Amino acid sequence: MREKKINGIKRHIMVDTLGLLLIVVVHAANIQDRDGAKLVFAKVKSRFPRLRLIWADGGYAGKLIDYIYYWYQLVIQIVKRSDDQKGFVLLPRRWVVERTFGWLMNYRRLCRNYEYWTETSETVVKVAMIHLMLRRLA
After folding, report:
1. Residues 81-104: pLDDT tens digits?
2. Which CATH number covers residue 52?
3. Could you tell me where the beta strands, DSSP code E, fall in 8-121?
4. Where are the beta strands (DSSP E) in 38-137?
5. 20 to 30 A Cα–Cα from 16, which one of 1, 27, 43, 136?
6. CA separation (Å) from 131 to 2, 67, 125, 137, 138?
7. Which run of H or E residues covers position 103?
């Protein structure tokens, strides 16, 4: 899971190990990341009942891990870089979400926030991902 800030909104996405979109939640930027993650997990349990382990970055550490385990019986494993590393370091599993955001930023409508409603913004992300997957099938 990861969030991306664009013009007063945050996009939280959950992807599989290939980087394909599972869940997207768009909300106002004034909502904290951990509260936004709760909105993501509210959708996860009903759509993916076999899901057990989730990799996330350090922004989702803290009380959220216990909350998600208590309410959804999901284990969140935080992928952190060590404190002694300087500059860019490729972290295992975290690059998958960053790569997906990179794919989505190729769509003009997603690199800026043209939408008024967050539901419309979520739909545009889903349509862009459908387009990506269809291009790869063809």
Report:
1. 777 777 777 777 778 888 899 999
2. 3.30.420.10
3. 9-15, 21-28, 53-56, 75-78
4. 53-56, 75-78
5. 27
6. 21, 35, 10, 10, 11
7. helix 94-104
